[in-house]
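Hey, I'm writing a tutorial for new members on how sequence and structure tokens pair up, and I'd like a real worked example in the thread rather than a made-up one. If someone can provide the structure for the chain below, I'll link this post from the tutorial.
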Amino acid sequence: MTEQMRVQVEGKTIEEAIAAAEKELGQKRDALDIEVIQQPKKGFFGLGEQKAIISASVKATQVQATEEQEKDKVLSPDGTVQVKEGQVTVVDPAPEGLAPTIAPGKNVNVFVNGERIEEPKEVSSQDEIIVVAEHIEPGWEPELRVSQDRLEAFLKIHRNKGKIYEVQDSAPLRELLVRARLVEEPEPEISLEELQAFLREKKIVYGVIEENLKRLLEKEEERELLVARGDPGEPAQDASILY
């Protein structure tokens, strides 16, 4: 049996480190033996920060299954289709063999001769096949609350991380389901000018507390903050006549 390779990788989070191990070993998480060497830790103003470190290798059962697939591939007259570094390669079958098929998995688009497919489709070496992983842009949504007396305005930011996927490499298979792995979750970029423009759009232009707007821009800040306070004015007095 082939000797197992073990890698040591790091990332900002355990998830990021596992994704790096998946990419380096060419296997999904459930096919890996993973050992956490170091938990990530946030620092204070960049001091004392430490990354997540893991050690990973392909499970012995997965290695054996891959070797058996390689043996079957040599003996089989069927055609195969393979994805490697985003490129698709098709090997046509022998006269008595079956044509290979390709299908999109989750978060992947597959185009055969310019047409997007959603179900398994037979392909040959003459077909133009393109596989594209999804890229979901990050976004954000402001939630504004105004007090009953209309003198205070509170703002909360709902952040939606983006999702960047990468097409996974595959062994040559007769029936290929193209898979993708999540490689990055970018945070939305929000500027002070955008928050100020949002408040102006809501007719909130006086008494804006810029310091709290800046606090809302921090990724860790998820609370509702007071962002504007109006002037209540002088209390009303009854009219009187002086003699």
